[in-house]
Amino acid sequence: MLLTRVRRDLGTDWRQWPFARYADRVAIAALPGLGLITYSTYIYFLTGDPLQWSKQQVGWGRAYRGLDNLVTDRVNFINTRGFYDYASTQTIDMFYGLAVVLCLVSVWPVFRRFGLPFAVLVLANLLPPLATGGLLSMGRMTSVLFPTFLWLGAAVPADYRSSVTIAFAMLQALCAAMFFTWRPMF
């Protein structure tokens, strides 16, 4: 619409401009950044600090610790107390860990089948939250990684797709119940 208005104002066909082929794509790609700037401006008028929203993440346990600490903490817990104790006392953590492992394992097949942008999408949505908050909230991070589910849909034989879909839906409902009640269901 903006380009149509510019064309009308200038009296030329905007499709002949050199950048016109990519203008819509660039505008769409810039929207998340524009949203960030808009929200940061709003927060600035509320608090005086435009990045206050990022500083509040520490209250939720989101502080950079690194991926090596995430793995080391879980391995040490399992080595000292056993896998059964980990699964029974850290149930949500275990389910989120399994979802993360599935998504990380899917990166290579997603890359081979759908290309680099989809594999980068999976990694870009997994690695930063893992490094800053561990497995906290990884259920909601992994549930929207559509390239993983596209790969699963293509990789699982047609006879088993209904069963796999039902199993995933049941696990998602269980994890949601554990999250909303703030306790394991076991």
Describe this structure in words.
The chain has 186 residues and is mainly alpha-helical. 76% of the residues lie in helices and 0% in strands. Helix 4 packs across helix 5. The protein starts with a helix and ends in a 5-residue tail after the last helix. The mean pLDDT is 83.
Task: Give the distance, in angstroms, between the N- and C-terminal Cα atoms.
Answer: 55 Å
What structural class results from the helix and strand content? mainly alpha
- What coarse outline follows from CA principal-axis ratios? globular
Low-confidence segments: none
Number of strands: 0
Please state the oligomeric state of the protein chains shown.
single chain
Mean pLDDT metric: 83
User: Radius of gyration, Cα only, in angstroms?
Assistant: 22 Å
Beta-strand percentage range: under 5%
Number of H- or I-type helical stretches: 10
The major pleated sheet works out as: none
- SSE succession: HHHHHHHHHH
How much helix, percentage-wise, in residues? over 70%
Tally of distinct domains? 2
Descriptive keywords:
globular; 186 residues; mainly alpha
What's the helix and strand layout?
Elements: H1 2-10, H2 20-47, H3 52-55, H4 67-81, H5 83-89, H6 91-114, H7 116-133, H8 138-142, H9 146-155, H10 161-181
Helix pairs in contact: 4-5, 6-7, 6-9
Question: Could you give a quick summary of the protein structure above?
Answer:
The protein has 186 residues and is mostly helical. The chain is 76% helix and 0% strand.
